[in-house]
Queue: 4 jobs
Job 1
Amino acid sequence: MSDTAMNKPVGLPALPSYLDQSDAVRARFERLKQREVILKVDGLNKVFSSGQRETLALSDISFETHRREFLCVVGPSGCGKSTLVRILAGLEEHTSGDVLLLGEPVSEPGRDRGMVFQGYTLFPWLTVKKNVMFGLEVNGSGAYEAEKQALQWLQLIGLEKFADAYPNQLSGGMKQRVAIVRALANQPRILLMDEPFGALDAQTRSRMQAHLLEIWRKIDITIVFITHDLDEAIFLADRILVLSAHPGQVQELIEVPVPHPRSSAQFISPEFLATKARLEELIHKGEAPDEEDSGTYSMVARMTDIADDID
Ligand SMILES: Nc1ncnc2c1ncn2[C@@H]1O[C@H](COP(=O)(O)OP(=O)(O)O)[C@@H](O)[C@H]1O
Ligand SMILES: [Mg+2]
């Protein structure tokens, strides 16, 4: 008997390869790749310099996203995910390489890109409706038109009843829903999201993920979504760009084999688990064990005299 056969847990069927795709999934990826390229990143490098010190944060990053694609970017903390999204937004300069949105170089923020961050970025002194209207008015819509559109967006996310409420009257999930439609109201070509659900509790977070997929299905938007939550990435993404740390480099671009439409029942499907196993392998590859910390997890002192063992 071979080593691998001996080590296989009894009773658990082997997972398929994350590279295996059903015919429907393969056909979907073929259609996706035929759609126009919205964002093209080619040989992107980013060096931070402070005093004498130079940090290579991103090294030779290349990828493309197609129209209406949902791309997730995952990687360990500090691998440059936020730096990447800030460069795509035009908020941070890159050192070399190309960032092209519809073929045009990105050098500053523009209304063709919408952004949603983790922190609630709504203006607290404006009502929900006025928050959504704000960008529309800045971009030249009259008040009447801006209000009409804002109400339509709020209707899309089921928050029209809260149009006249202020942000502090909303739950965290509702605030982030408003932040999403506020970003979408200007009809950007791409929505850039940096760990947007990171501050939400687990239940709200999973509702928001399903909600975001619903919005994405209904409108013409390409999404680049940063997360370090692997389940979130698999649930949301068409493809997942996996970065390594120090410097941030592309390890793999994974085509998620989980079929659409997505549902939480798929979290335990073989394709889902196979993808997760691959992501874990990539993310934890080469991770040095933390010397100082090692062993301390088993050092919880016993603080009861009760003799019976709960195991
Ligand atoms: N303004 C900055 N100046 C110097 N170094 C920075 C700056 N911003 C980020 N970095 C460094 O770049 C790397 C990537 O950071 P970041 O993009 O925030 O990673 P992530 O979002 O994946 O956690 C880190 O090593 C970080 O210390
Ligand atoms: Mg970050």
Note: The domain at 21-112+189-285 is CATH 3.40.50.300 (Rossmann fold).
Job 2
Amino acid sequence: MSQVFGSNSIDIPSKESFWSVYQTIKNIPGLNIMEKLWASYYVYMDNDLFATGLLFFLLHEIMYFGRCIPWYIIDRTPYFKKYKIQPNHYPSDKEQWECTKSVLKSHFFVEAFPIWFFHPICEKIGVSYDVPFPSLLTMFYQITIFFFLEDAWHYWFHRGIHYGSFYRIIHKQHHRYAAPFGLAAEYAHPIEVMLLGFGTVGIPIVWCYFTRNLHLFTICVWITLRLFQAIDAHSGYEFPISLHHFLFIWAGADHHDEHHHHFIGNYASSFRLWDYFLDTEAGDTAKQTREKINKTKAEKTAKVQVSAEK
Ligand SMILES: [Zn+2]
Ligand SMILES: [Zn+2]
């Protein structure tokens, strides 16, 4: 078969092993190792729909469980107890195993199906999966935009599923653990998985629909970073080197831990902005500030009423 990579056309015999495909592709000038591996993978698979589906399924499994393992070890290491946000609440092995089974069920029975529609959708709206990849600057600005858009999506829909029946039917499952741990990040009802998952997967698709400028590799990096953010936010640990100490708008674990602890407030995923400006911060300090503001407002209104009556 003949494959075209940028301005290079290259002949690759079919039914080759991955290694021999790579040996041919590695001679294409101007590609870095990641781009060569990416191109070799798509040529070797010889079925783009299956290649993308498998890639995203494996990426999700490896990145999710790979990121949870260090948190499991930290939970079992007494040294780290001083950094635990709720030091008296550790998940038991039984709880972690129940959670893992439920998350795996969701991955196989809820997410594995729509994943096969991903490649045709990407092709239709012009998501590129060719090599070379876009520049680091392009990936950086697009992923930054996705973080802010996903955060807004997450804030409003997460806040929405805290209301009445929505909470009881959909979101209650995720709140089973008042002291969260990494594996609990995706422990949720299938409707919640699809609804909040749209913020991660759907937003790049909508972005590409309007801009016609997005690469599949950028989506892979974005999904990986978003998974890390969600798992770390559920880790239950706050370190002196946690990102929000340096990037003050970053939410981090203490922000989401408060949400699980108090059940209300702190609805955003990655940043503290929505909760700060819309006065939905969780926790005792935020509650006291809110009560103080409400009290001042009520006193002012009462004063205005008294002077109007005079
Ligand atoms: Zn919630
Ligand atoms: Zn949560």
Note: The mean pLDDT is 90.
Job 3
Amino acid sequence: MPPVDSIPRLEQFVSRPNFWRRLQWYLDRTFYVRKRQFFGRTVYGSAPSLYHHWMYDTLAWKKMTWLGLPVQKSPCDLWNYQEIFHALEPALVIEFGTFQGGSAIFFASVLRAIGKPFRVLSVDVNPCMASDPDVDFLVASSIAPNVAATINKLKATFPGPIFAILDSDHTKEHVLAEMLSLRPILGRGDYLIVEDSNINGHPVLKSHGPGPYEAIQKYFQLYPNDYKRDAAREAKFGFTFAPQGFLIRN
Ligand SMILES: C[S@@+](CC[C@H](N)C(=O)[O-])C[C@H]1O[C@@H](n2cnc3c(N)ncnc32)[C@H](O)[C@@H]1O
């Protein structure tokens, strides 16, 4: 038991220069907790979660471009995809939801830099004006039977690992149908990203209604052993637009 005299008195402690600033720094560093006024609301949360809200709610993600083309993603997720590509060296990338082609051309740019043969197939109900020598832009619904047929043909020409990314219609039913359509196509070690599982309150856009997150849950109820979650990748940059959506096929 230390002598009572040796226990510093609280007032002495508190009156030390910069005590409150140092305490704030310590709490910030230790807990990463902040309280902020945001669009008139008080928001509590960890710094990554608040940044997630900021990135989503300010639409900063809609202002992203790759080589001048819009890419509607979080930059942290794009960096993760680049790292996954380097590790996986996919021969085929399947993207559902092209928009203006920025993400498909991002994927092709990274794979060209890696230097192995590959093809990117990007599918959208709307035509895309962009073009790239290594990308096939297909105008179709992602769940149309001809899409699966096209993927199977490409698989034969570009055998090897597949990276698939779902970023089209974000309703639960549609995403679940996309996951089911890929079930016979993807094999062990292939990578599936289910984008925008952050909506419907996970943690953004609470008003959306059941979406990709709920589709993933339903898929895992149906087929619990199809995929394992790549939780380390999800956590790597503190937040992702695809929570629970980094999946590796068993
Ligand atoms: C969020 S955007 C895609 C963003 C793009 N991947 C990017 O990162 O820039 C969603 C796209 O899905 C398309 N889409 C909507 N329903 C679809 C469907 N059933 N099949 C394929 N694409 C669809 C829309 O036309 C839209 O271009």
Note: The mean pLDDT is 91.
Job 4
Amino acid sequence: MNEKFRFYSDRNFLYRYRVQKDDYRETLANAVIPNPLTPFKDELFSSWIARLSAKFDCQVSTFLNIYFPFLRDKRLTARDMDLVLDSELAEIFSQKTRISKTIIYNTGLKSYESYLSETIRDNSRNNLISTVKIKGSYSKSYGLKYCPYCLRENNYFKKQWRLLFVNVCEKHNCYLLDRCPSCNNPITITKRKKGIKFFNCPFCGFEFHKAENEKVSSQSKAVENQKKMLEILNNGYFIFENKPYYSIFYFWTVKKLAKLIYLDEYRRNDILQTEIELHNYPLKSKKEIKSRFIEDFLEVKEGISLFTAIYDILKDRESFDKFVKDNNLSFYILNTFKEGSDYNPPYWYIDLISNYQVGINNQIVTEEMIRNAVKWMQKNGIRVSLRNLAKWTGIDFCSNKKAKVLKKIVEDNKT
Ligand SMILES: [Zn+2]
Ligand SMILES: [Zn+2]
């Protein structure tokens, strides 16, 4: 490489060059980033970019402006970049760093697509992904959580810390923190006070890894149940009554139950009450809840009790049945869906609640359901066939009026 273009990691180098040499900007925009850090296997995109920027001693916005000026229109630092990272962007970052596109794509939340839900959107809120509300490059809500002990071991933020049902550290058995312990601001990692080696709060400079946090009581099932939920997410399927189904069904139902329990106050459940007592943190009452979108405001200790209970309710038909009976849930309540997030109930759920109504049949299977199922099978390397469709989704539309049309979708995509 020409001497003129070598990268020096000493301070102000980039700035000095930018002022003095107009063409240097262009060179950097076309350059491959020298010795980039490789993301950790479970690292979050913004965490990787923040570490990379820190390595070159600049803020994330400066780093992106210098090396990726052509991405300016994307306004990455003004948005939730972990949601924005799609396959096209991953390709760009891959070309600039020579790190595999798959590794980079996997750091983004879109990589949960077809595992957590059908689609992950960057222009709206997403089910089970905590909201960060970026304003002026700062996070305005408590959507990013972390474990200080994990940071002490390895200085990076994990992708799973953005999930609504991840509230404890499985490794250190402690609660996650969702704000700066020193000034209480939400965690922002794409800005930092400079001159400090570790991730720190841009408002007060507190180094996040120095925090201490409470251990979760050993009587709690939180760690165990969270682990199992994450396993379902990572595997892409769950087992119910000895049959595998795809994980999207599961997480759709998790969200539905979260709304029933948290927003509509159907809270009669032993595990839920035990957990609330153990963490000594009651769930907010209906009156205190101002929005219907839990992802905007659910607190760590509420989330623990809520999702520990939900895992238990969904573990088999018997416990689901008990939950329905204890709370006197009618078929009507279980079967009411509003436009938006919980629209389009999965077949598996319809089947689960069908016990509470006589005479339900599979006329409900729609073309969209089949298309989504086919997409999922393709993505997971499962051969597309009617038999596999029935096996993995529980969808069996033999008696369906539109059976011909539905079967054709599968036939057309057969592998
Ligand atoms: Zn930890
Ligand atoms: Zn702070």
Note: The beta strands are 134-135, 138-139, 168-169, 174-175, 237-240, 243-246.
